[in-house]
Amino acid sequence: MNSVSIDSEKATSAALIGRARRMYEMLSEALASAIADLRDEEDQDPAGARARLDLIRSHHKALQTVIDIEVSLEKRSREIGGASEGVLDLDAARAEVWRRLARLQGTGGD
Which residues contact 68 (CB under 8 A, 6 or more apart)? Predict the structure, then answer.
């Protein structure tokens, strides 16, 4: 079994959630700008509307990712907090990542 210390896992988790939050903030700003542009436009072209719809979908996906990561980290934190050996099973984590990637690929997600 592969393992890492809890401190290393916490640092990795903090970096991961930090990147996810920054991505969400960038998408939020882009969405707010797109909404402001939408309010200013009198006539909407289909390509612009489609681009805004894609932006909204990206925003929703980023928000869901941030929420999923936070829930996962909280759950893992509770599980690890009760562990006496203080290690993380990387094989299990790797398997979960592959399952999630396969699920995203199956649904056509990015």
Answer: none
